[in-house]
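Homework help board

Subject: predicted structure for assignment chain

Our instructor gave us this sequence and asked us to write out the predicted structure in token form, then describe one feature. I got the tokens but I'm not sure how to describe them. Can anyone check?
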Amino acid sequence: MRALNLGESLAEIMQDKNIDSKSLASILGVAHETVNSWKANRGGIGLSYLVRLCQHFECSLEYLTGGTEINTKPKKFVLENFGKQVRKVMKARDISTYKLEQETKFNGKYFNVWDRGSDPKLSTLIELANYFKCSLDELVGLE
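My token output:
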């Protein structure tokens, strides 16, 4: 199971790009305390903010979260509905909804929430990527 460290990676990327928490917070439209909480790995960060960070820093989600030291910048930063994207990954791996429900905690309720546009948290993304044995970028559809 991969152990990612968004906080450490984010702090390093911010230092490399010479941007402080207040500036990044202003760009993202959040409080600087929010950025500081991400850097300290406190609280959950949703997928839409992860993608906005990837866009701003021109990096992959795997790189942003510390899953790799090599930045393979996606060509596309547009997200599909997350429920639809998970179904694509399931289909590519020949995993049924029934099998996913039996082997994980992710039942139909999760899909209903994702289908309505809810943002999964990083911890959910990591669980699913580990289950599917795929990168976070593949899981969320960043190419």
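Reply (TA_rk): Your tokens look well-formed. For the description, you could write something like this. The chain has two domains: 6-64, 82-140. That's the kind of observation they're looking for.
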